Amino acid sequence: MKRFGVLAQCAGLVFLAISFMSCVKEPVQSTEFDLELPKEQVKHFNLENGITLLVLEDQRNPVVSVQAWCRAGSITEGEFLGCGISHILEHMLFKGTERRGNSEIAQTIQSIGGYTNAYTSFDRTVYYIDAPSKGWKTALDVLVDAMFFSTIPEDEYIKEMEVVRREFAMGFDDPSRTLQKLLFATAFTEHPYQYPIIGYLDNFNRLTRDDVLEYYKRLYLPNNFTFIVSGNVDADEVLAALNEFSASVKRAPLKDVYIPSEPRQLGMRERHEAFPTDASRFYLAYHIPGITHPDLYALDVMAILAGQGKSSRLHQNLVEGKGVLRGVGAFSYTPAQSGLWAVSGVMHPNPKVSRTEVVGDVIAELESFRQKHPSSEELAKAKRVVISDRVSEMETVSGKASSLGSSWFIARDTGFSDRYLEGIKAVQAEDIVRVANTYFKPENLSVVSINPEEALATQGDQTQSPEASKKSELIHLENGLPMVVVSDNTLPLVSLTAVMRGGLLLEDPGQAGISTLTGRLLEKGTKRRSAANLAEVIDSLGGTLAVQSANNSISVTIQILEPDLETAIDLLSEVLFEPAFSDEELKKEQRKMLSDLQLENDQPMRIARNHLRDELFQSHPYARNTLGTAEALEAISRDDVIAFHQKLLSKNNIVLALAGRFDLSRAKSLIEESFREDFLNGDLVLSERPSDFGGNGQTLSIDTEKVQAIVQIGFPGISVDNENRVALELIDQALSDLASRLFIRIREEQSLAYFVGAAQLIGLDPGYFMFYAGTRPDAAERVRDELLDEVNLMVESGLDAGEFERAKAKLEGRRLLENQSATRQAFVTAINVLYGLGIDYEARYQAELDALTQNDVHQVAKRVFGDKNFVCVIVQPPETKKE
Q1: Could you give phi then psi for residue 22, rounded to 5 degrees?
Q2: How far apart are CA 867 and CA 708, in angstroms?
Q3: Which segments of 132-281 does DSSP mark as H helices, in order?
Q4: Maximum distance among all alpha carbons in the chain?
Q5: At what angle do helices 416-425 and 296-307 cross, to 10 degrees?
Q6: Residue 803: is its pLDDT beyond 70?
Q7: Contact criterion met (CB below 8 Å) for 218 and 76
Q8: Distance from chain centroid for Cα 545
Q9: Do residues 375 and 31 lie in contact, with contact meaning Cβ atoms separated by under 8 Å?
Q10: In whole angstroms, what is the distance from residue 363 CA to residue 529 CA?
């Protein structure tokens, strides 16, 4: 479940709908809420060598997630505590085995259309491969090979050490990572949670390859592993394959690792540090027990009530009400041992009140939990949020495998996720007051923050095509609006989306940012409801409402549990057609967007991207930031927003998408009742926007106060209907993972970058194709030259046969994995219809991909990259010494 994350996150999807009838339907509020979820049978096996195998058979989609969980993390490192040895070992496991050389593992995974990744946490390291189910056996073979037969090559170790040093640099630049490290270092004084998972750079630099190899042999033993396979597989076949692949791996004694308990905190702790940022960020955290404690459920519910969702107390009172915070959240982190219940906050740049005052406001809000029982409506809302999270998690095989792994790893109970839901349902109002009084004590509190320098000074085998499992159908409503329908009865989940052309292409230059501003205001109240009431209704149903304004479109989505579809339709209609656009909310959102613009200075990739687009696109709208400019934002009036919104409601500019479990006849009737023709305007006419690309091979150097350097190279790209789209997306795939020539050359062979790859903007107008890398400042120009040299090689000879086949398999695999969710499939299809590509575009795309040849790709590479019409942007500290 989502609650098992190191820092719990709120769900974030969407919901919208409402009628213009005189009577608006309200959701039924009740603490007695139950919804039957699918019963899933986990098959549990113990191999003779000690490996635990958990298999969850799921025949819904032809995909699989194969995962290996090792009980080795930063708290198990013994004498290497604080060195990050678990993390560097994670990096090394795919660098060569007794059977496979360097990069061969990534190429093997790519050949089955799979994706692989790994992460290291406090108490575990997890490796996983998501792929089409026909490749499950290969994926399992690769994982077993890497887990037990890695050779940790010396030359690869030296290069990977430099890669991790780049990761350290990224962390030094990232305010969120810096603040999280500060929190755990302050709240924990004895328990090894105090040490960052990546370690300390000085300690890390002293590690040797022999240290890592010894640690690997000590902890990567079969009796310290759980393998998890979720998806379209047969459990007995998986068991037989795992027995075969690990037959030579023998059980061995595991040495005990002493992990001290965290003593009771006796006094409040504070740490406040300076950081190159425009806005202060802080945590308030209280110690709480681990996951087996019965207070777990009430603590989790209280976190939702306090700071998860826009109707939560902290958001309503401190973000929407007083406006003293840019963002706020709460989480309850309960691992196997000591945990933390915490509030996170982001202040505005140049705030009108001090951080000390804001922290006092947060503590005062939390005090209300000690004094007053939450209402039955609040409790019902929190419980629905948990249930909705659980249902959303069950949409993908990877989500199921991760949930199962967390349940087993932390609680040694494969059914813990379901029992956790029962515990949540049993929480009563008095439980909230009791746990608040138990843990919200001044002596149990730690407060940490990072601040701008000046702010700190002033404060103290069988598969099927993606189309075969869930069919997309296009129907038309009585008002003429097209609606994509994707039925999936597996889970009691349903979503409704409205997509519209919008974004940069619909904006006047003097109103830059108005598309994003309008989208955000759609969530900020209607003519019938305040912003707080709207958020309360959505959250009380365990639903999510999200508005996304991108380069070419605006979308509004509501996802909700099946019984609440009628309310969702009404709410979407009301939000879409009857927004309030109040002056008060307009001013709030303008201030937030101005803050967002300022905070982009914390992200070197964003800084580089903004300069690259400005130089490459010149006067074309794609040159602009979707957030606009400070000058334009401040000048936008309520009348401007209303006029822009009216453009969006044109008859030919809205496509609806309905996905999940529903009765189509009833749903269509309800939607037609709420989405009446008189709410729509005439046709939208887009003006001509001639492209004037400004690339001629120039390099721009941008000074920042960051530790790392960013290199981005942009070429003129293509539009969504371009005949070269499939070939160019295949090139993108070939150049964007661990098996790519860019990664092997620049990171693996030369250790010049932590990350390197390619990306695209494909829009209604031609976009751009970008190559990028994160490196050390003295190597930035060399990295630029290495990237351009690889571009020239692409133009000269294209992809080799192996690259081509692997990229093709990867592109097919990505489509299978993305189409697991009916909501996602419906959204993509609706966008295709909106852009004029048609309901069958995904099938045509697949047919073109099947027919694509190596020579086709080469010819596209020559057309796109053959001219020297690129722009290069290098973001780096000033006065950098060149390598």
Answers
A1: -70, -25
A2: 30
A3: 136-149, 154-173, 175-187, 201-205, 209-219, 235-245
A4: 75
A5: 70
A6: yes
A7: no
A8: 17
A9: no
A10: 29
